[in-house]
Structure formats: structure tokens, C-alpha cells
Amino acid sequence: MQTLQKLSLPNMGCGTWAWGNQLLWGYDESMDDQLQAVFNLCVNNGVTLFDTGDSYGTGRLNGRSELLLGRFNREYIGSNKENICIATKLAAYPWRWTRNSMVRACKSSAQRLGKNVDLVQMHWSTANYAPWQERGLLDGLADLYEQGLVKGVGLSNYGPKRLKQVQKKFAERGIPITTLQVQYSLLSTYPVTQLGLKDLCDELGIKLIAYSPLALGLLTGKYSEQALPKGIRGLLFRQILTGMRRHGAASTGKSLFLCLQEVAQFRNKTMSQVAINWCISKGTIPIPGAKSVEQARENIGALGWQLNVSEIAELDRAAANTDKKMVQNIFQTK
Length: 334
Known about the structure:
- The chain is an alpha/beta fold.
- The chain has helices at about 30-45, 65-75, 100-115, 130-145, 160-170, 190-195, 195-205, 230-245, 255-265, 270-280, 295-300, 310-320; strands spanning about 15, 50-55, 85-90, 120, 150-155, 175-185, 205-210, 285.
- The longest helix is centred in the middle third of the chain and has 16 residues, at about 130-145.
């Protein structure tokens, strides 16, 4: 077995779901130069973790996110290059059920990236619908580490019960779990407040990665019932925005929207930056996405400062009293 290679994980990463996704994010190949500028800006500012997946990319563009990351990584010349960590999630497709299928999948990702995957992650658990499938996939994930094909392994969308089981299974082979990734934001506190995943991760020495820290854009303050994004996001936003702008029935406190707005104004920051900083304050590594240099620059503005205890408590209260929360990922296990 390989000796553990230390992965360098920053306080914030960059999610690349949109890099190749036409259906939800309207990706077009003309965006590639802008995305390379996003990559360069992030790395230069110490945002060196890039989260992707072998399922990212729509239709003929499947795997596009990994291909772009591979190209950008090769062409990048500048500071922090040695700290770049490309984390890919391998999908638990129905036709993947043997340990070798996971090894082959990771090798395919490495081919698209032009280098070995740094951190390989199980995209989701099949425990909710096909528990028999998961054993082979997890064995394959562990094999990748043992064979020296990756520097670390992680999980995504796992709850505490399954996490403990997998951690025990991996520990028997001497393999540490580096990260756990869950949907976590001011509109999705469930994994931490109800499942207790942060405390468990701290106990097991696992870093908690917060995906969708801006709740698909809901927490940016850029949308209203009169100004909604197109497509599926618009339908979802219509349901949640009203609840964000009012306090819960049992509360007389501020709405989440107003609370975010006030903290942002006081700090001379944007609502997005406050929402991301809140995730960092909770000891997680948020991975907000960025499709433009402007978005990347705004995300980077969440670094280098810290919300104080009273601001965090106020945001916590507003989040707890929000009528409508983000829909949980259907693959999230208990």
C-alpha cells in the first residue's frame, strides 16, 4: 500500500458542475476561455481545490468538466500550482457494480484530466435503493488508494450511519477517509443540525465539504419573484424565495434575506460572500461554482475575514426560522 500523501485542502474550493452542463446552467463551448480565466484567478488566489464528477456534462459533453480542468491545469503558469487538487466524484451508475468498474472509471477520469485524480469520491450511496451494489463500488474506491492511483478518498451524500459503517470498513484496510461532501448552506442546514455530520467528521478526522453553499444562487440576493432564472431553477426558486423573505410563523425575528442583507451592508460585502463565509465559520470547505471571472472574484471576496459570533448566531436563527428550505438530495442517506 502507498504511504499517505498529504492533500492540500484550502478554506474554499470551486465547484465545476456548470462546466459542461447545458440543461441547468446553459453551458456553451464559447465559455471555455472565460472558464480558463476563472481557473487561473482561483488558483492564483489560493482557491486550489476543484470539485468535479465523471457525470458532469450534458449528452455529448459528458466528461467535459474533467477535460476542461485537465487542460486548464496543464496550461496554468503561476503561483500555487503545486497545491492544485482535482477532486472527482465517480457516479454509482446501475451498470457499475464491481470493484474493477470503479478502478476503470477512475482511470477514464485520469485520462480526461491528463493526470491522476488527486481525491476520488463516491458520488452517492446506493444504500437507499440498491444496497447490494455499494459493496463492490466501495471496494473499488479503496483499491484505487491501495494501488497509488489517488492521493485520497472521499464520500458524498452520506449520512452518519452509513459514514460510520464505511469508515470502519476502510479502517480495516488502513485507508483513511479524507472528505465527506454534503449539501450545506443557510438554506440547507439539515446535514449538520439534524444529522450531526460535522461533529462526527471532527471525531473521525474527516473534512466536511459544503456543496451548493449559495443554494443554486438563491443566497446571492440577485433573484426575486419578479426576476427568476430560466428553466428548472426558476421553478424551484419561486417556491423558496417567498419563505426566505419572511420569518417563520413561530418567530418574530428577521427573515433570512433581511439578515443576510444587513450583515452584508455592515461588512461592506455581498450577500454571497456572507453566505460563503458562514459556511467557512462552521468549519466546512464550501465549493461555490463560478462561470465567470466576476463570479469567481465575488467568491474569493468571502476569504480573508471572519463573521463574528453574534453575526453567526443571528444568521443561524434566521436560517432555522425560514419557512422553506432547499430540497435535500434524494441520494442523501441517514
